[in-house]
Amino acid sequence: MSLWEYANPVRFMGLSARVLPVVSVLAGLFLAVGLVWGFFLTPDDYRQGSTVKIIYLHVPSAMMAINAWAMMLVASLIWLIRRHHVSALAARAAAPVGVVMTLIALATGAIWGQPMWGTWWVWDPRLTSFLILFLFYLGYIALWEAIEDPDTAADLTSVLCLVGSVFAILSRYAVYFWNQGLHQGASLSLDKQENVSDVFWQPLVICIAGFILLFVTLVLVRTRTEIRARRLHALRMRARMG
Amino acid sequence: MMPELGKYAVAVMSAYGASMALLAGLVALTWWRGAIVKRQLAEAEREARNG
């Protein structure tokens, strides 16, 4: 069976109905275990004190903020190239999830930055590109709402998504491009020297898995809603014309 | 059971509080809108069937 068959709304609804219960339970389980482990059972860091516990929210949400945009980019490209409506609706469904992830990353970063850096905000390359990514999310959502014709809205938001991808990439790699930033490098790395200590790493990986599963759950639910909303719109138009 | 957060207690608790509130709001809105659209679609399909 080809992957493209799931671009059929009926097939997508059938598959997502079967997958959703499993993914949502796993999301709740991973988030509960990761956050309880991280908050209650890990020690303070010798430099950051108890603020290290913010890592379990900040790192997964920041990763998902960027990954959500990457998912929207893939879905937008599929829409532009193959004109599958489900992919356009999936991109639309992911945007509000991405915006909340970006907001959590910005808020927790600011709350952590105040005691550690002595400031809530600094125009650091990574922080600035993340703020611009947040504004792109808002613009993307506003554009979908502003255009009545769904296909035109999908076309224009897809183009906006392509442009915004520059900032999604920048927000991930800005620390490597510019050295003058305050923001440190990646917390998770294959390089043992750069990686966080094992005692923080284990619950962090579980939290990241939990955030990924939560994202998948929410995007599936929201895509199903968008498919239903589209069918509802079509039925209402037909009733009005008939 | 509550860990000793020391002088950073306000920062840590507000980070968790704000994040949980945002996530709970997102989940609640997602399910709320999903339920409304599902109900409206069922009504519209019933009306379409009944002419």
Give a description of the structure.
The complex is a heterodimer of chains A (242) and B (51). Chain A is an all-alpha fold. Helices cover 77% and strands 0% of the residues of chain A. Chain A contains six helices and no strands. By secondary structure, chain B is mostly helical. Chain B has one helix spanning 9-50. The N and C termini of chain B lie far apart (62 Å). The mean pLDDT of chain B is 93. The chains are: A mainly alpha (242), B mainly alpha (51). Chain A binds chain B through residues 39-40, 44, 49-51, 53-54, 57-58, 61, 96-97, 100, 103-104, 107-108, 111-112, 114-115, 214, 218, 221-222, 224-225, 228-229, 231-232, 235-236, 238-239, and chain B through 1-9, 11-12, 14-16, 18-19, 22-23, 25-27, 29-31, 33-34, 37-38, 40-41, 44-45, 47-48.
Produce the secondary structure layout.
The complex is a heterodimer of chains A (242) and B (51).
Chain A: H1 9-40, H2 55-82, H3 85-117, H4 125-146, H5 150-177, H6 198-241
Helix pairs in contact in A: 1-6, 2-3, 2-5, 2-6, 3-4, 3-6, 4-5
Chain B: H1 9-50
Name the structural class of chain B: mainly alpha
Biggest interface, chains and residue tallies: A-B, 36 and 34 residues
Main sheet overview of chain A: none
Order of helices and strands of chain A: HHHHHH
Please mark out the parts of chain A with pLDDT under 50 across 5 or more consecutive residues, or reply none. none
Instruction: Give the helix/strand class of chain A.
Output: mainly alpha
Q: Features of this protein?
A:
heterodimer; A: 242 residues; mainly alpha; 6 helices; 77% helix; 0% strand; globular; B: 51 residues; 1 helix
